[in-house]
Amino acid sequence: MSLFERVENAYIALAGNRVTLASSTAAGISSYGFFSDLSHYFSGEEPLQLRTLGFLVSGLASSIFIFSTKCGLGTAAFYRAADRHIKRRGTLKENVVRKWIQNAVEDDSTLGYCQLQGIYLAAKKHGIEDIFFELKEKYSSNTMRNW
User: Fold this and answer.
1) CB atoms < 10 A from the CB of 86, how many?
2) DSSP class of residue 128?
3) Contacts of 35 (CB under 8 A, 6+ apart)
4) How many CB atoms lie within 10 A of CB 138?
5) Residue 9 forms part of a structural domain
6) Do 102 and 139 form a contact (C-beta atoms < 8 A)?
């Protein structure tokens, strides 16, 4: 895998998957606040605050979301597969997308977002989002918006 593909995978995993992006941002901010409060406490500048516990709890909650999305790796894997498929076929074939959706998504309104987001990003790259939305509406019960 080339350096460009590695960077693109990292971008798709972290920024392409909005759940991972939001969770990573929240975890970073919470970590900064937590360690900042601890350093002020240990240097004797101010007593330990209740907000320190809030930073810790929100950081842990954000980390759970990051790990629940497998750090966006599902998005990157489906992006690569859909990108290769579109390059070979020139479009998204209905039977292939149906299999991807049905294998990746249980009958739930939020499960499978990461995989769908990967397929969406590949379709968007090739200018065929309308086909993606048509197939998503037809085969997926996921209600989370892809953008």
Assistant:
1) 20
2) -
3) none
4) 11
5) no
6) yes
Integer Cα distance of 66 and 54 in angstroms? 18
25 and 64 co-located in one domain: yes
pLDDT in tens, 83-94: 999 999 999 998
Q: Are residues 76 and 121 in the same domain?
A: yes
Are residues 63 and 77 both part of a single domain?
no
For residue 61, what are its two tokens? 């909650």
Residue showing tokens 């929240």: 26
Tokens of residue 105, six digits: 């998504």
The total number of structural domains in the chain stands at: 2
Q: From start to end of 25-114, where are the E strands?
A: none
Cα-Cα-Cα-Cα torsion 79, 58, 63, 120, nearest 10 degrees, comes to -10
Encode pLDDT of 6-34 as tens digits: 888 788 877 777 777 888 888 888 989 89
Domain extent, residue 105, equals: 72-139
